[in-house]
Write a structure and sequence with these properties.
single chain, 16% strand, 11 helices, 10 strands, TIM Barrel, 46% helix, alpha/beta, two-stranded antiparallel ribbon
Length: 273
């Protein structure tokens, strides 16, 4: 047991954050040609072999990156015995098309996001408790088929409490504002907001994910500040870094960021005993 301030954690809680690699940008590049290169499936194999805990995709209605076929192919890939301990996370807005796809694929985790079809990327979380009437029956429907349900959320305590109220298993903190503030005069202030929201999720027994514009530079700080994050989903910057260092090396670099950040947090908590 290690203690930091008035919080106590087991040492295992400081080194368990999973890295799920978002493959959308691989599909974006592939879709600029009429063939299957670069292959989303090959990219999935490489990141899994490099030690990623799973893969994430976001099949949008316009199929501008991940296509429905990709979702089925990845689900089949992850059934292989060697990937039995890895997870498949599918993100999307819960319209009828998306829910039908989820019911056919039944991924390990579904992350519900409130983005409109024309958005270039997810840039805000659900408006809770206002969206509770929409989300509660959908969350129940997805949990009934065996999926863990995570809700994309801004770092707002009322939103976190709303996610718990509708029955979500986890929240995924939208870390875009953290990226924008990192390295600037408001970094500590913004990070404190995320820590507060994360702590409220922990108090409520909600699992905690994080994602959006996490990088090799800012991930260790977030990880050390919130060592109880269950999973980070990283795509854009990890795939971008892979242009220079290779995909497997990029995965390993991000894993080292998680390890370094959480090791720092553990040493700080130990020193505060």
């Amino acid at each position: 047991m290690i203690v930091f301030g008035d919080q106590a954690f087991t040492t295992g809680q400081t080194c368990m954050t999973a890295l799920s690699v978002n493959l959308n940008k691989v599909a974006t590049l592939r879709n600029t040609r009429h063939h299957d290169a670069p292959s989303v499936l090959k990219a999935a194999r490489i990141v899994l072999e490099a030690g990623a805990a799973g893969v994430t995709v976001h099949p949008r209605p316009d199929a501008r990156h991940i296509r429905e076929r990709d979702v089925f192919d990845l689900a089949e890939l992850l059934k292989a015995p060697e990937w039995a301990d890895r997870e498949f996370n599918v993100e999307g807005y819960p319209d009828d098309r998306f829910l039908d796809l989820i019911e056919r694929v039944r991924p390990d985790q579904v992350t519900l996001v409130p983005d409109a079809p024309e958005q270039s990327t997810s840039d805000h979380g659900w408006d809770l408790p206002a969206d509770a009437g929409i989300l509660a029956p959908i969350v129940a429907r997805l949990k009934k088929i065996g999926c863990r349900v995570s809700l994309f959320a801004d770092p707002d305590v009322s939103v976190i409490e709303g996610a718990k109220a509708v029955g979500a298993d986890r929240v995924e903190l939208y870390t875009g504002p953290y990226y924008d503030a990192f390295g600037g005069p408001k970094q500590a202030e913004v990070l404190a907001v995320f820590v507060g929201a994360a702590q409220r999720a922990r108090d409520l027994g909600l699992g905690l994910n994080a994602g959006h514009d996490l990088t090799l530079d800012n991930l260790p700080t977030l990880s050390s500040a919130i060592p109880w994050i269950d999973e980070v989903s990283i795509g854009h910057h990890l795939i971008g870094d892979a242009l220079w260092m290779g995909l497997a090396a990029s995965v390993k670099a991000y894993q080292k960021c998680l390890e370094a950040g959480q090791s720092l947090r553990a040493s700080l908590k130990t020193a505060a005993r």
